[in-house]
């Protein structure tokens, strides 16, 4: 009876561990859902930056055309207008360059997040598999003990 009590206690302990593992799995699933939402938000920002980049490129083309027309209209204003246009072009190119850099950074960030997510997911799968294997081993051991005690008594 004492051994049965000990076995019962071990079984109860294993059930508590199983419940703890299940709770951890639920927490991991919540973390995964949050990471997926973060990835989605990054994708939305990436799309927004892409649209902004296209808009800046169109603005740049419009500014260049405007500068050319002004040069053709008058030679006197051409020099001052050309300097202003070149300054604006440089600013827009700088902005475009910055936006492209940000776009590349966002892409890298998104790729890094996806890699981390995949790695974490695989780690969680491996842990779950290991936990299930341990649970099966413990259940087999408990079953072995039960049959051994049944044979003894």
TrEMBL record:
<dbReference type="GO" id="GO:0000922">
    <property type="term" value="C:spindle pole"/>
</dbReference>
<keyword id="KW-0966">Cell projection</keyword>
<protein>
    <recommendedName>
        <fullName>Outer dense fiber protein 2</fullName>
    </recommendedName>
</protein>
<dbReference type="GO" id="GO:1902017">
    <property type="term" value="P:regulation of cilium assembly"/>
</dbReference>
<keyword id="KW-0963">Cytoplasm</keyword>
<dbReference type="GO" id="GO:0005813">
    <property type="term" value="C:centrosome"/>
</dbReference>
<keyword id="KW-0282">Flagellum</keyword>
<dbReference type="GO" id="GO:0007283">
    <property type="term" value="P:spermatogenesis"/>
</dbReference>
<keyword id="KW-0969">Cilium</keyword>
<keyword id="KW-0744">Spermatogenesis</keyword>
<dbReference type="GO" id="GO:0005874">
    <property type="term" value="C:microtubule"/>
</dbReference>
<dbReference type="GO" id="GO:0031514">
    <property type="term" value="C:motile cilium"/>
</dbReference>
<keyword id="KW-0206">Cytoskeleton</keyword>
<dbReference type="InterPro" id="IPR026099">
    <property type="entry name" value="Odf2-rel"/>
</dbReference>
<feature type="coiled-coil region">
    <location>
        <begin position="4"/>
        <end position="141"/>
    </location>
</feature>
<keyword id="KW-0175">Coiled coil</keyword>
<keyword id="KW-0217">Developmental protein</keyword>
<dbReference type="GO" id="GO:0030154">
    <property type="term" value="P:cell differentiation"/>
</dbReference>
<dbReference type="GO" id="GO:0005814">
    <property type="term" value="C:centriole"/>
</dbReference>
<keyword id="KW-0493">Microtubule</keyword>
<keyword id="KW-0221">Differentiation</keyword>
<comment type="similarity">
    <text>Belongs to the ODF2 family.</text>
</comment>
